[in-house]
Each structure stands twice: as structure tokens, then as C-alpha cells.
Amino acid sequence: MPNRTTNLHQMRVNTHFYIGFSIIWLVCSACGVKKSLAARPDTTGIQSIDTTRVQHSLTQYSLNKNSLQQNEQGIWELYVTGSPLERGLSAGNLTRELIQTQEDAFVGKIKEFIPSQGYLKLISKIVAWYNRKLHLHVPEEYKQEIYALSRYAPDTYNDVAMPYVRMLYAHGAHDIGHALQDLMLVGCTSFAAWGDKTADGKLLIGRNFDFYAGDDFAKQKVVTFMKPDSGYPFMSYGWAGMIGVVSGMNLQGLTVTINAGKSKIPLQAKTPISIVAREILQYASTIEEAIAIAQKREVFVSESIMIGSAIDRKVVLIEVAPSNFGVYEVANSNQLICANHFQSNAYAQDTRNQQAIAESHSLYRYQRMQELLAASEKLTPTHAAAILRNREGLENAAIGYGNEKALNQLLAHHGIIFQPQDRKVWVSTAPYQLGTFVAYDLKQVFEQMNSNSGTSLAVTSLNIPEDPFVHTDTYHNYERFRALSKTIEQATAAKKTIPAQQLVAYEQLNADYWRTYQILGAYHYAHKAYKKALIAYKQASRREITTVQDAAHIRKYIKKATRRLR
Q: What is the pLDDT of residues 393-449, one digit of tens each?
């Protein structure tokens, strides 16, 4: 995952490429775009469904057998049942304020990258062209659910697309985010352990979901407990408006998590990975059934789907790509690790995968996970949380807070832990995955979820306490570092001056992180203080730099600053 300093520049490069390329295709594909924008699922009977929402308080709502409430840790708990249209209407109505919040946050992040209103309008047309066949690759059931939910989406962004189309497109945001290699928004790491590696011998699975779409986007997390009229009841962790799955477990004890792989930029959207994961979670009880579902769907990016199964008592990786498919499982082992590169034989000669291993931070995180698992003889959920929260590099090296080589990059949307055979799950709370991990027992939840009692169904006695790190000066310095980084980057772009003492203080906030010095180097270089820039870039080169491309960028500016001083 390239560093966030270069994301803006690379986003603009990608934007210019798409604009030039897509103008030609927009002319050729206008008819297809119009058909896709007008396509709608079958909504027969939607008018007869009761949509009367009852507000009990500012944090509790109900609608027939469905409900939404916020627990004491700040997580919204959504309980939904029924047919696709019933589920969609209930989820949309109950979470309509949260949907507005998520759309505001997501569109706000896009506007940071593309502040020009003219560009935004053109981009919306490009997105429509790109997604012109998306509706053909999403099962009718999920289109119905999305359509019903979209009736409660705000009209604020209708100039971008109408609510149903907009929410359908949003389900491909994860895919598009990591397909644009220079804007990769995901760098997830996950693991599974069992046998003599866990305290009870049963499966234990943990993962960090490092999808970053801005701080505001991650504030209102939603844990959904869904009892559909077909398939298995399941839980998933995400955000309002999202019917797809990025992390979840069903009542059969089958778990699903997704990790991005190296992808080329696709020219047409197909089935979003979150929809594939949702279908697996709703309709599979075994690994064999999960593989069958994944094989029948055409995807448009590369992804590792980790499947844990209480019935099979094992974990595998389903590795999917637009033109390849593999399944990876370990033999004679008690653990499995997944980062952002593929491990099955099907990808042994894949050049993109080899590039990801050689140039990205995926292998580094994989090796760090190996170290941490080796250091824990008998894993418990509490040990799993400590691993997901780990901020150090290989051999416990200090690599700076926020470094994407760390398992805990201090940007995750969430962390999650599963005990499939016991049907227990722990979901993280803010900030990042440092807050309390809240426990749920799925058997208990689905027995009691229709009571509308207004009481959280979390098993508080099993909660994993917050990381004490959140109360340290180091953590507060990191938050100051993040805010000041943005200030300095903006000053660099505008060639405005920052007080010298503020720059000195900034360096001390996160002195082990290479990007601290890269940001200072860029600032000094823009202000023609080439000696200071050279010193800063050399300091960056002595730290643990995230990717091969980042290291090349630092070397380039060391040479440029040196030449300027001659």
C-alpha cells in the first residue's frame, strides 16, 4: 500500500488517465450506460410492507420485529429479518440517519482528492460507464435488498447518481479502492489457529480490516444480525447502507473475511467481493459450499477470502481473480496466515502476485504475524486481540506509529475475532481496534433478537478490555502527529510557512516513522531549503520504509536535493 502522501498525486494521475480514456468509451457506450441507470429489480409487493419506525430514544428504534440500538461502547446493533424487500426497507428506515452520515463522509473524502466540481461531474459519468454492467452480476435478491434500502438514502447526492444506483455502486468501493494500485485503501492481515496452538484446541480466527476512507467514515460502525427468509442467519460488521460483507459469521459457524490482492485496473465492474462474501455467508455451511459459490461468480479484482468452518474444523483461503482461481490450505500445521498476496499453486507464477510480494508491505506483515503467533503458545481471544493491536515491526523494532508494515497501522475500520465452533465473535470499538472488543454469542442473539427489548445482546462478561495504549502520551502524540501532518502537507502544496519550532515539535511526535521525515523533506524542498530537505530525506532513508516505491521516492529526492546544493 503506497504511502498516503503520494496518494493525492497518484490519484490525480489515475484521474487524468480515466478521463482521457473514458471520453472515448462514454461516446461508444452511452446506450449501455442509460440501460444500467434505468435497470431496477422486481419490487412487487413493496407497497404493502409496513415501514412504521418507532423511536424509543436517540439511540433506540424499532420497526415490527426489527430494531436498531447503540450499545454502551458506541456500536450500533441492527437486528433485521424477513424477505429481501422487508430486510432492505427495515435496514434503510432504521439506519437512515447513519446512511446520511456515511455518504457525507465518503463523498467528503472523494472531494479531498478531486475538489473541482467539473471533475466530479465528469467522474460520475465515468463511474456510470465503468459500472454499466454491474447490475447484471449482482443476484436479484441483493438488488432487491439494496433497492429497498436505498429508498431511505438522502437526496443530497442525486447529482452524482440516484439513490439505488449510488448504493449499488458503493458495494464495489472496496474493489475499486484496491484495484487503483496507487490509491490502495486496504492492507488487511488475518490469521487462524487451532489444535495445540489454541487454549481449547478449537478454531480461533482474527483479522484487521484496514479499509480507510477517512476518520469520519469509520465513526459509526454497525454490527448487523440478519435472519433472512432463505439461507442461514448471520452477523456482519461494517457500516450503514452496506448489505455486502467484509467480516462475518453465520449460525452454522462459517466465517468469512476478505483480504485484497494485487489487481490490474479493471475496465468493467462485475460482482463486488463484498457481495460474493455475503452470498457465501448466507448460503454456505461448509468450505466445499463456499468454494462452489465463489467459483460461480465473476469478479473484477483479486481477493483472498478466508473461510473458517466449524463443521469442517479447518480454515482455507479462496483466492479469486478475474482470470484465475485457487484454494490454499495448510497441511500438517496448526495455523494459517493471510496478508495481501496469494499462496496457492494457482498463483505461483502470477507476475502481479510476485510483484506484490517483492515490492509491497504484505510479506513483511505476514512475517510479523508469524513471529507473534510463534511467541504465543496457547492462543485465546485476548491473545488474538493483542496480536491485532501490535504496533511494532519485525523483531519488535520501533518502526513508527502508523507504519503500514505494522499489523496495527492505526487506521483500521475494525478488528474482529471469531470462535466458530462456539459461535462467538468479538468486534472492536474505536479508536481503530484499540477500544473494547465487544463479545456476542450468535446462538443467544438469534434466539432473542426479536424481543425488541432495547437491551444489547452483547455478552459483556466476555468483552476484551481496551488497549491501555489509548491513555498514554504516546497515543495522544500520534493523534497530534496525524493532524499536524495534514497541516504541513497543505502548507507544502500552497507554499505557506510553518513556524520552525512547530516543525521541530512535529518531528518528536513520531520520530521513528519514515514518513515524518518525508513530510518534512517535502516541505523544506518546496520552500527551497534544500539542505534541510536533504537532512530530512536522509533521516527517512534510515527508517523502515513501507514499500520499494516509497524507498525509490526518497532516494530520488536525496539526489535532487543534493544537486540543488551544488
A: 999 999 999 999 999 999 899 999 999 999 999 999 999 999 999 999 999 999 998
Angle at the Cα of 211 from the Cα atoms of 60 and 215, rounded to 5 degrees: 60
Question: Which cell numbers in the block locate residue 416?
Answer: 474482529
CA distance from start to end of the chain: 35
3-class DSSP string for 360-425: CCHHHHHHHHHHHHHHCCCECHHHHHHHHCCCCCHHHCCCCCCCCCCCCCCCCCEEEEEEHHHCEE
User: Which residue in 87, 102, 100 sits closest to 146, CA to CA?
Assistant: 87
Euclidean distance between CA atoms 184 and 302, whole angstroms: 13
> Are 420 and 253 contacting, i.e. CB atoms less than 8 angstroms apart?
yes
**Residue of 417, 420, 418, 419 whose CA lies nearest to 428:** 417
Q: Please state whether beta strands 221-228 and 76-82 pair in parallel, antiparallel, or not at all (unpaired).
A: parallel
- The 3-state secondary structure of 415-447 reads EEEEEHHHCEEEECCCCCCCCCEEEEEHHHHHH
Number of residues that this document lists for the chain? 566
CA distance 120 to 433: 33
State the amino acid at position 232 in one-letter form: Y
* Sheet with 414-419, side-by-side order of all strands: 335-338, 189-193, 204-209, 414-419, 424-427, 438-441
- For 37-87, the DSSP string reads HH-----TTGGGS----EEEETTEEEETTEEEEE-TTS-EEEEEEESHHHH
C-alpha span between 142 and 529 (Å, rounded) = 56
pLDDT value of residue 19: 42
Q: How many CA atoms lie within 13 A of 296 on its CB side?
A: 10
SS3 sequence of 96-137: HHHHHHHHHHHHHHHHHHCCCHHHHHHHHHHHHHHCCCHHHH
Collapsing DSSP states into helix, strand and coil, what is residue 334? coil
Q: Which three cell numbers stand for residue 248?
A: 462475518
Cβ within 8 Å of residue 79, ≥6 positions away: 66, 67, 68, 225, 449, 450
Compute how many other C-beta atoms are within 10 angstroms of the C-beta atom of residue 520. Answer: 25
Gap between the Cα atoms of 124 and 127, Å rounded:
5
Q: What angle do CA 171, 176, 181 make, to 5 degrees?
A: 155
Nearest partner of 426 among 458, 383, 468, 391, judged by Cα: 458
Q: pLDDT digits over 76-131, tens only?
A: 999 999 999 999 999 999 999 999 999 988 877 777 767 677 777 777 777 777 78
**Dist CA 262 CA 272 (whole Å):** 16
Q: What Rg, from alpha-carbon coordinates, does the chain have?
A: 23
3-class SS of residue 543? coil
What are the grid coordinates assigned to 524, written together?
A: 523544506
Contacts of 54 (CB under 8 A, 6+ apart): 61, 62, 63
Q: Kindly report the number of other CB atoms within 10 A of residue 111's CB atom.
A: 13
Cell of 504: 521541530
Peptide bond before residue 115 is cis, with ω within 30 degrees of 0: no
